[in-house]
Amino acid sequence: MKNSNRSPYTLLSGLLFCFFYTWSSAFSLISLWLSQKIGLRGADTGLLFSAIALTALCAQPLYGFIQDKLGLRKNLLWAIGFLLLLSGPFFIFVFAPLLQANIFAGAVAGGLYVGATFFAGIGALESYTERVSRILGFEFGKARMWGSLGWAAATFFSGMLFNINPNLNFWMGSCSALVFLLLLWRLREVKTDALSQLEYGKPGNLRFSDATDLFRLPRFWALIVFVTGVSVYNVYDQQFPVYFSSLFSDVRNGNEMYGFLNSFQVFLEAGGMFLAPFVVNKIGAKNGLLLSGLIMALRVFGSGLAADAVTISCMKLLHAVELPILLIAMFKYITTRFDPRLSATLYLVGFQFITQVCASVFSPLAGKGYDTMGFADTYMIMGALVLSLTLISAFLLTGDKSRTPYSMDFKKGENL
Fold first, then answer.
1. What transmembrane ranges does the database entry give (predicted)?
2. Which H or E run contains 76?
3. pTM higher than 0.85 for the full model?
4. What is the pLDDT of residues 8-27, one digit of tens each?
5. Which residues of 299-328 are buried (b: 16+ CB within 10 A; e: fewer)?
6. N or C: which end of the chain has fewer CB within 10 A?
């Protein structure tokens, strides 16, 4: 990496670290907080996650198009940074009282804040980082690795802090957000001339019709089929801490052990982010997506079959292999099969948006399944869904050797 490129790489890595630290502090143990401190049942928690997903799916297309129009300007990232700063006061003084007073009012407020701040915000930050990485010549995965380390650093202490006072986690999130804003202030914007040379035109010339034309492309819908399957990983993770802690005779011990497990998983995930580009470059973007889907199916099926904490911990750790390959392959797929000027829109709509659409549908169903069938049987159904759609995607996704110039793609609306 050239010396002139080190500063943006370092600052973007720091932004990802702080974003994920705040997100993990506020949200990694949210299902335990809702269950043990607020007293919500599985179905009520599913309703809340559905509200979060609905808000995120509304914000993500908007964030994506705005960021593509902004190019490498930081306006949207500033807005996200200030939302992160409010995480501590929001969870303690707004969200908790609303949930105790009225579950629906709490779900709406929580959905609006969490969906717009974390689930939509991360897509904007990741797509911004990926765009800079292509211009300056460093691997996105090496910067995204620091996001995983930020999550791991927060979760390492989250279980212990939760047992002392859950509010400590929320305040730690706000402190990390303050560092995020300081780093963002230090980050200089990359010149848009370099971006326009790389991406076939200036981002400011993008029209709304350029984004909507994506829906005319058959291979865009092929990508949606794949994402529908892998979107299950979000639903699986939502109430997993509740199931994991229930496998221990002492729930407080389970809470702490989950914090350690999650931290270890994300440390491994960080290593995976460093190695994933080599794997995906070797096997291709399409095969990388399919590999991540198969690993995910194995993880969910294995969780349904696991009968003890050790076995299910091993299944959870597979996430450290699956997610890095999925993210790196997804970015490489969308920037080589579609117009790269729309990379943020494609990532936030084609991946993040569809993930939240599916989560808004699957979360209440999963919550109901946990209450009626139990976690194990519900995981088996989830695993079958992931496996089926991954196998279908093997025939639908575009291979690495079949490509058409982007200008022809958007003029003719043809499939690659």
1. 12-34, 46-64, 76-97, 103-125, 146-164, 170-187, 217-236, 256-276, 288-311, 317-334, 346-367, 379-398
2. helix 75-85
3. no
4. 899 999 999 999 999 999 98
5. bbbbbbebeebeebbebbbbbbbbbbbbbb
6. N
